[in-house]
Protein: GPI-anchored protein
Organism: Canna indica
Amino acid sequence: MELLIGKTSCQFLMLVIWFWSFQHGVSQKTEFEPKPHVPGKFVLSDPPMGLFDPIEISPAVVPRNPYPVEPLSPMYPSFPSTYEPILSGKCPVNFSSLLDVVDRTASDCSAPLAALVGNVICCPQVNSLMHIFQGAYNSESNMLVFQKATANYCFADLISILASRGANSTIPALCSVKSANLTGGSCPVKDLATFEKVVNTSKLLDSCSAVDPLKECCRPICQPAIVEAAVQISLGGTSMLYNSRIPGTGSGTGINAVNDCKGVVYAWLSRKLSSEAANTAFRILSGCKVNKVCPLEFEEPSSIIKECRGSAPSSLSCCSSLNTYISSIQKQMLITNRQAINCATLFGSMLQKGGVMTNIYELCKVDLKDFSLQSYGQQGCLLRSLPADIVFDNVTGFSFTCDLSDNIAAPWPSSSSLSSLSLCAPEMSLPALPVPQTSVSSGSRNIARIIASIVYIISSLLL
């Protein structure tokens, strides 16, 4: 028994000594010999800076997936690819003086986003750049437009520079811009001296030097001043009172001339204002035009009309059909909150004409943001009605601001007619024309009425 205990104690002591030796052992360095068929080096790249910091959406970062309602790939920031452009060398414009507005345009029309924000952000900024670019041409000379050959070279160079800074290369087709937009077209006045002789330039500059973004769209000041100047130079300097070529609704040629002359007016304003002030003013004016209409394309909603027709449709089948239809609309583009109102009203009118009498927006809980592109398949993003830009930084990539303050129910139109739709408050409507005094001759009253009608008609057609 004592022998067994002694033997066991010895074995335990040896075990303790062995563990102690193992713990204090020295590891040997083993050289790794790569196999001939395996690459000799495999290095993991460092993750992007800030990748593991708290994610900040400021306020909405668009993923690479063009259809956010579908499953997303891992959300890495998008970064533009830049390179040195190849220019013609035949454009006399100093591009260095336009770098700020060029960079802003490239960002607003970034390759992955241009088609989604073309109507609201990209194309308004492109049009503003075109006006400023035209004003920068021969700024020391007497001409306000490009010569045709020079316009071709300069336009191609401008698009190349934008593409080299990350902009979408399809800008000309997307925004319907071309080199001819820089030439003044059929406008008879293209030089500075004649322009300033014909136009009341002090009035024009006062009206457009500081455009109010809250009032201009409903109580315009700059827009009528631009139209008035365009009408004046479209007549070649002849008085509107005695010219038989006054453009009207029945004269397509006259309307085209006024439209071309508006480009000349914009170019003159670009010379008188800083590029920043001109860009701000032109973007506000574009915003007024953009927010007047719905840019979405609606296919015939026959399936909705079939399920929702009448005064008491089945909520299950009707809402299922409506949701399916709206989900296809949500892949088109980003729109503003005002455009969403127009789109909801337009689509509701289409349904009413087909016999849908019930407010199915309320029945199916349809909000305004349901008409815009969806963010991560959960909620729509409505852009603000005021001009906005795409913002780029090295952490979040491209981002833009969504107006998601609340869930506003889509308005169901009171009738199938859109004639009563107005986004301006009653106090913002134009005042009634003053009643002329009895001492004023009937001829003077008629002339004044004709001039007012001309400016109003052209403003309605062009703005």
User: Anything to note?
Assistant: Confidence is low (pLDDT under 50) at residues 19-76, 427-462.
